[in-house]
Amino acid sequence: VTKPIATITRTKEIMERHGLGFKKSLGQNFLIDPNVLKKIVAKAGVDENTIALEIGPGIGALTEHLAFEAKHVYAFEIDQRLIDVLKDTLAPYEHVTVYHQDILEADIKSFLQDKVNADEQVRVVANLPYYITTPILMKLLRDELPIHSMTVMMQKEVADRMAAGPNTKEYGSLSIAVQYYTESNVVMTVPKTCFIPQPNVDSAILQLVKREKPLVGIADEALFFELVQASFGQRRKTIKNNLQREFKDRLSKDQFIELFEESGIEPSRRGESLSIEEFAILSNVCHKIIS
Ligand code: SAM
User: Hey, which family's this protein in (predicted)?
Assistant: First the structure.
């Protein structure tokens, strides 16, 4: 019986056999703990109706565990060297397809249209390349893709920010961007020792479950996100001060007063105390005043 790919001995053996080193620039920190992988796959709820989408399969550590449970696994890997390795390590699994592609360049919408039937659920499961965690997630969230959930390993600090609620130091525009589309929870923290090479930072698994429809009704999404961004501009300043700096060309003094009065939001509050619903009210009133 061969050992799982995600063990230190097999990982080293595979890398040596293919004459490879780890590329730091591509965020290559491979998992070497099969128990962590079992937990990720279980938390993700992968089953025989699941189409698993993996970003950055590396040498196949997680891919293999997904293959044990999923109906099909599609994995996107940017590093050509690893494509050859994966042909070898994933040879026993016929229901795994690997693509040599940059996930940020891939047309995931048409891809899913081609590959997924109505009775199947798409779940993204990945140990993400940390240098592009946010761009990858925002791409997958924004495009109204038929993705049920995402269970992804990332830098712990980023996971905490994405899952944070109001009145915490982690809460900011990233929390709102993510929670506007999903319900997000940190499901597990993972120590550095579970990776080779060990990353410099602690890691965590974030679970993002897509909301059926966005949390709040928003008249103008671009304006909403602009207003959120501006409200956190200088964290120690009030929303009034932060918004005045950003919107002074679009709103008169009287309109600023109207904005806060009609929203029922105290202008002396700080951005970090506003819930997503309150930002939505503020942006909807702002939209009404401006247009
Ligand atoms: N899944 C493997 C594991 O858990 O051991 C490897 C995870 S490693 C943290 C991240 C992987 O993402 C690497 O294999 C890296 O080459 C790949 N990667 C980096 N940038 C990528 C991109 N833009 N598109 C697709 N894959 C990428």
Answer: Belongs to the class I-like SAM-binding methyltransferase superfamily. rRNA adenine N(6)-methyltransferase family. RsmA subfamily.
Q: Which of 160, 208, 203, 187 is nearest to 31 (CA)?
A: 203
Please state, in angstroms and as integers, the Cα–Cα distance from residue 94 to each residue in 45, 62, 71, 142, following that order.
Answer: 21, 16, 11, 31
Assess whether pLDDT exceeds 90 at residue 216.
Answer: no
Residue nearest to ligand 1 atom 14, measured at CA = 58
The ipTM assigned to this model is 0.99
Full DSSP string of 194-249: GEESPPSS-EEEEEEEE-SS-SS--S-HHHHHHHHHHHTSSTTSBHHHHHHHHHTT
CA–CA gap between residue 205 and residue 241 (Å, rounded) = 36
User: Is residue 230 a contact partner of residue 247, using CB atoms and an 8 Å limit?
Assistant: yes
Residue closest via CA to ligand 1's atom 11 equals 56
Is 102 annotated to bind a ligand? Reply is yes
